[in-house]
């Protein structure tokens, strides 16, 4: 099965892997750039922007991680199949 | 605080407490393996947990009294600054996704139970492994202390803790009892106890959150009203500091602090021995990645709970000790019986992680200090015995933190632990991806980070405390206020990289690496991967 290192089959950097990396990096950029969301407006059902925006990112980052997971699985399957 | 003891709430609280205690003892029989006297069995539950149990277990140590008491209390005290816990938990998932599967694979291939096992195997350095083990045990203690503070806050609000005027023994008696129960069932059931209790805990927590987040805002007149009142309260000048109490949005000057606290905490979380324990007890590499896609539910919970800090202000709760704000809010807003349920959720929510943490720290001591340095020929039965004893000692250490340190800013307990544990990151995560770092450079970097972090934290004063009064300080060279742990971590990495260049140039002897590149990607079912490790010491490769 995956006895050989996953990384050594085929090129290391592929478009799919770039997308996976972007999915994983995006939350860091969004969350650490505090200046981009340090404001109260627009409020959502009375909750200031600062708070609901970050909670929305919980959902966004979940979706991104899920995409990364699915892409990674596909990538791995393709690689194993492709070398047989 | 209402006068006297809240009888109904206390009765409900005790009922749930007894329920989990019984479950804890029964857990010893649940999914029992042939040999309960192995460390693997007691300390890792036999490493056979699938997605759901792992999820509960991980959730069990990620979301704790930290979530329920410390974070809302920080919000209650200062506003926006306390909300950094939400980005912190968001950043955890991409991190888990990236490096934990590799750790799982290499651990299952070589029978590693702790991070120190891995570091020793990877770098062939007992010194580095000892440093990682000591750091893990030290950093876990204030984190357990935070859990005990959570339980104490609940007991205080129920009127059991006694006021300031009673003597210290009466005041702390309920805490000691809760502590005794925890110690007893952890001792007898190992990791199985917290895994099973986590179901009860999470069910209670979901119910309480759902009710709190719908019922309290309605009663308080909606979020508009809540945030308007909170904004007003933060604008008032704090007589102790002469500055406004807080703000609804972090000001320019607080944004570095906010971001560094979030990033530092996220990097630190998976260095803790207990997070690793939960990860390694999962059945396969896939379980971990699958988990990262459902764990964020907990982050959402955390965010909603954090808002309770604002609700406490809007409800007019006024407490000297901020940790009491949320329990007090529950007592004021809920009927007594439901307040009891909420208190039980907080209490058990603190108990489970405390158990997991102390087991993990104990594993670390037994395998990487006792076996490596004190008694290399220890039998599995002896190992388990030492582990159980150490798990008690770690809890006693945590108790000492609670009884002697200032509890009004409990979140600092966790942040202090984070400063320390973060210093093991280069050896562990660095080691998972590259063998380039030199073992001596890693050790030197660790020492520099530990010393800087401890000294810097020692030097932070707060209105109530001369030392260890906070976890943020000016970042040298940048001039902004940032999390000490992250600054120390950067120093650590710089020292490690520079010294690695020097040592490589000098051709200093490199340790023996017992792992192979393919070990880092092996999954259950591959040859040589131990899914259920043999009951012995699991350390056959050493």
UniProtKB/TrEMBL annotation, chain B:
<keyword id="KW-0813">Transport</keyword>
<feature type="transmembrane region" description="Helical">
    <location>
        <begin position="481"/>
        <end position="503"/>
    </location>
</feature>
<feature type="transmembrane region" description="Helical">
    <location>
        <begin position="168"/>
        <end position="187"/>
    </location>
</feature>
<keyword id="KW-1133">Transmembrane helix</keyword>
<feature type="region of interest" description="Disordered">
    <location>
        <begin position="516"/>
        <end position="542"/>
    </location>
</feature>
<dbReference type="InterPro" id="IPR050277">
    <property type="entry name" value="Sodium:Solute_Symporter"/>
</dbReference>
<feature type="transmembrane region" description="Helical">
    <location>
        <begin position="411"/>
        <end position="433"/>
    </location>
</feature>
<feature type="transmembrane region" description="Helical">
    <location>
        <begin position="75"/>
        <end position="100"/>
    </location>
</feature>
<protein>
    <submittedName>
        <fullName>Permease</fullName>
    </submittedName>
</protein>
<feature type="transmembrane region" description="Helical">
    <location>
        <begin position="49"/>
        <end position="69"/>
    </location>
</feature>
<feature type="transmembrane region" description="Helical">
    <location>
        <begin position="6"/>
        <end position="28"/>
    </location>
</feature>
<feature type="transmembrane region" description="Helical">
    <location>
        <begin position="294"/>
        <end position="317"/>
    </location>
</feature>
<feature type="transmembrane region" description="Helical">
    <location>
        <begin position="386"/>
        <end position="405"/>
    </location>
</feature>
<feature type="transmembrane region" description="Helical">
    <location>
        <begin position="337"/>
        <end position="365"/>
    </location>
</feature>
<feature type="transmembrane region" description="Helical">
    <location>
        <begin position="256"/>
        <end position="273"/>
    </location>
</feature>
<feature type="transmembrane region" description="Helical">
    <location>
        <begin position="199"/>
        <end position="218"/>
    </location>
</feature>
<dbReference type="Pfam" id="PF00474">
    <property type="entry name" value="SSF"/>
</dbReference>
<comment type="similarity">
    <text>Belongs to the sodium:solute symporter (SSF) (TC 2.A.21) family.</text>
</comment>
<dbReference type="InterPro" id="IPR001734">
    <property type="entry name" value="Na/solute_symporter"/>
</dbReference>
<keyword id="KW-0812">Transmembrane</keyword>
<feature type="transmembrane region" description="Helical">
    <location>
        <begin position="128"/>
        <end position="148"/>
    </location>
</feature>
<feature type="transmembrane region" description="Helical">
    <location>
        <begin position="440"/>
        <end position="461"/>
    </location>
</feature>
<dbReference type="InterPro" id="IPR038377">
    <property type="entry name" value="Na/Glc_symporter_sf"/>
</dbReference>
<keyword id="KW-0472">Membrane</keyword>
């Amino acid at each position: 099965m995956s006895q050989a290192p996953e990384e050594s089959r085929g090129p290391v950097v592929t478009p799919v892997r770039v997308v996976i990396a972007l999915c994983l990096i995006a939350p860091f950029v969004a969350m650490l750039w505090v200046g981009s969301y340090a404001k109260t407006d627009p409020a959502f059902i009375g909750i200031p922007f600062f708070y609901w925006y970050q909670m929305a990112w919980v959902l966004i980052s979940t979706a991104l991680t899920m995409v990364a997971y699915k892409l990674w699985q596909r990538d791995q399957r393709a690689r194993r199949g492709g070398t047989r | 605080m209402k006068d006297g003891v809240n009888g109904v709430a206390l009765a409900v609280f005790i009922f749930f407490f007894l329920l989990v205690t019984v479950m804890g003892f029964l857990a010893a029989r649940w999914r029992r393996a042939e040999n309960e006297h192995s460390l693997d069995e007691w300390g890792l539950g036999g490493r056979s947990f699938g997605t759901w149990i792992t999820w509960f277990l991980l959730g069990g140590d990620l979301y704790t009294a930290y979530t329920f008491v410390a974070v809302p209390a920080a919000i209650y005290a200062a506003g926006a600054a306390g909300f950094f816990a939400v980005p912190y938990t968001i950043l955890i998932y991409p991190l888990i996704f990236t490096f934990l599967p590799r750790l799982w694979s290499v651990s299952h291939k070589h029978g590693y139970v702790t991070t120190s096992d891995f570091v020793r195997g990877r770098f062939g350095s007992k010194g580095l492994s000892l440093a990682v083990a000591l750091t893990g045990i030290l950093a876990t203690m204030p984190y357990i202390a935070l859990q005990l503070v959570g339980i104490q806050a609940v007991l205080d609000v129920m009127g059991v803790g006694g006021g300031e005027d009673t003597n210290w023994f009466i005041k702390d008696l309920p805490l000691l009892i809760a502590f005794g129960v925890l110690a007893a069932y952890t001792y007898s059931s190992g990791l199985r106890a917290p895994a099973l209790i986590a179901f009860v805990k999470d069910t209670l927590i979901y119910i309480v959150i759902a009710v709190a987040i719908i019922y309290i805002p309605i009663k308080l007149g909606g979020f508009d009203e809540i945030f308007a009142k909170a904004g007003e309260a933060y604008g008032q000048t704090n007589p102790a500091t002469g500055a406004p109490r807080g703000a609804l949005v972090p000001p320019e000057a607080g944004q570095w602090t906010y971001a560094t606290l979030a990033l530092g905490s996220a990097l630190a979380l998976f260095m803790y021995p207990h997070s690793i324990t939960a990860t390694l007890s999962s059945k396969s590499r896939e379980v971990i990645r699958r988990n990262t896609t459902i764990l964020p539910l907990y982050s959402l919970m955390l965010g909603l709970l954090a808002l309770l800090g604002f609700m406490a202000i809007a409800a007019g709760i006024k407490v000297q000790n901020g940790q009491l704000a949320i329990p007090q809010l529950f007592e004021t807003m809920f009927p007594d019986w439901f307040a009891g349920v909420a208190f039980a959720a907080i209490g058990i929510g603190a108990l489970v992680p405390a158990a997991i943490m102390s087991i993990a720290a104990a594993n670390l001591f037994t395998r990487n200090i006792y076996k490596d340095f004190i008694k290399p020929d220890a039998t599995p039965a002896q190992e388990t015995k030492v582990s159980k004893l150490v798990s008690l000692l770690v809890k006693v250490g945590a108790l000492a933190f609670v009884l002697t340190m200032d509890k009004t800013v409990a979140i600092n307990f966790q942040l202090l632990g984070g400063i320390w544990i973060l210093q093991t990151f280069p050896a562990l995560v660095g080691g998972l991806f590259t063998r380039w770092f030199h073992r001596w450079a890693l050790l030197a970097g660790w020492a520099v980070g530990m010393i800087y972090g401890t000294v810097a934290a020692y030097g932070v004063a707060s209105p109530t405390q001369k030392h260890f009064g906070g976890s943020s300080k000016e970042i040298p060279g940048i001039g902004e206020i940032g999390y000490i742990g992250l600054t120390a971590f950067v120093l650590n990495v710089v020292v490690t990289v520079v010294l690695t260049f020097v040592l490589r140039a000098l051709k200093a002897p490199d340790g023996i690496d017992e792992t192979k590149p393919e070990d880092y990607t092996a999954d259950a079912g591959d040859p040589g991967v131990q899914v259920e490790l043999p009951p012995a010491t699991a350390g056959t490769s050493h």
